[in-house]
């Protein structure tokens, strides 16, 4: 997270959490957890709204968690009616409509593009969400869609896809990740440091996650699943100037996982990578290549 782009409300929340973290670690963990389960509000541009109008939209009902069968409405999008299916997964605070350039390229190449608003995003249900829920929802979507040609995930969407394919009984031929951070524990730890929240809060936060989500935060880490991601071909695109998905960490990961193909660019950062010309060309090449 880049400090200079944090909204004032988030900076004020960080200052408050920092001040109370050492004397009240349990309460700080609860407030921090609530803050980071609440996606930021999103305003779409006219071009994105136009792209939404071009989609075939519907609603899918899924269960909220593996341990909670409360129905959750997920709004789905589809562009194109024939051809191999490509599932697009947006990032935290994002939208399928942010894949505008990629969607146009895929449809022009004869692919059928599928996507959905993640829980608590866009037109889908829920006010708060988290990585555990994203994995559970994605597993259900894959099972219902049937055969997929590929999954393309940006940022948090890429991480949730990789963990779903590693930890659940689903597979796809191709997984493509754009600007994807590798580890939820590292992300949380770096955010605590950014807000100057005392380290005593981290154990409380991990305990809270185990209690509420019935998962261990330490397990939400791609480093634990080297060679266990159930995809025949894996490709990553990342940017050296991205402060959310750090290139140095991805470089180290790729050395341990040489089967992953990758594209390393410079200058577009975390969000513009989704429309970078070389990235779009790389995606089409991977999708067209035989496995």
From TrEMBL:
This protein's record includes keyword Secreted: no
Keyword presence, Hydrolase: yes
Keywords annotated in UniProt: Hydrolase
GO cellular component, one term: membrane
Gene3D superfamilies found in the cross-reference section: alpha/beta hydrolase (3.40.50.1820)
GO molecular function annotation: hydrolase activity
Residue ranges constituting the AB hydrolase-1 domain according to the UniProt record: 86-237
Protein name: Alpha/beta hydrolase family protein
The species this protein was found in: Chitinophaga arvensicola
Lineage, top ranks: Bacteria, Pseudomonadati, Bacteroidota, Chitinophagia, Chitinophagales
């Amino acid at each position: 997270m880049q400090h200079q782009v944090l909204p004032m409300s988030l900076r004020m929340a960080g200052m408050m959490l920092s001040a109370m973290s050492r004397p009240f670690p349990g309460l700080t963990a609860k407030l921090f957890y609530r803050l980071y389960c609440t996606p930021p509000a999103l305003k779409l541009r006219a071009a994105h709204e136009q792209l939404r109008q071009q989609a075939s939209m519907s609603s899918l009902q899924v269960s909220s968690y593996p341990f909670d069968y409360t129905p959750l409405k997920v709004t789905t999008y589809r562009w194109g009616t024939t051809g191999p299916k490509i599932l697009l997964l947006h990032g935290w605070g994002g939208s399928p409509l942010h894949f505008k350039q990629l969607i146009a390229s895929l449809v022009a190449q004869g692919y059928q593009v599928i996507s959905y608003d993640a829980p608590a995003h866009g037109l889908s249900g829920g006010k708060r969400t988290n990585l555990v829920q994203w994995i559970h929802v994605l597993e259900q979507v894959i099972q219902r869609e049937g055969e997929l040609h590929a999954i393309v995930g940006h940022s948090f969407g890429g991480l949730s896809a990789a963990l779903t394919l590693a930890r659940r009984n689903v597979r796809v031929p191709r997984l493509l990740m754009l600007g994807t951070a590798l580890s939820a524990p590292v992300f949380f730890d770096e955010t605590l440091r950014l807000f100057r929240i005392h380290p005593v809060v981290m154990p409380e936060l991990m305990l809270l996650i185990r209690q509420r989500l019935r998962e261990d935060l330490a397990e939400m880490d791609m480093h634990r699943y080297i060679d266990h991601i159930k995809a025949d071909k894996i490709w990553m695109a990342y940017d050296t100037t991205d402060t959310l998905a750090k290139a140095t960490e991805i470089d180290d990961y790729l050395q341990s996982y040489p089967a992953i193909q990758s594209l390393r660019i410079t200058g577009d950062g975390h969000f513009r990578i989704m429309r970078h010309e070389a990235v779009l060309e790389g995606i089409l090449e991977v999708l067209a290549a035989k496995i």
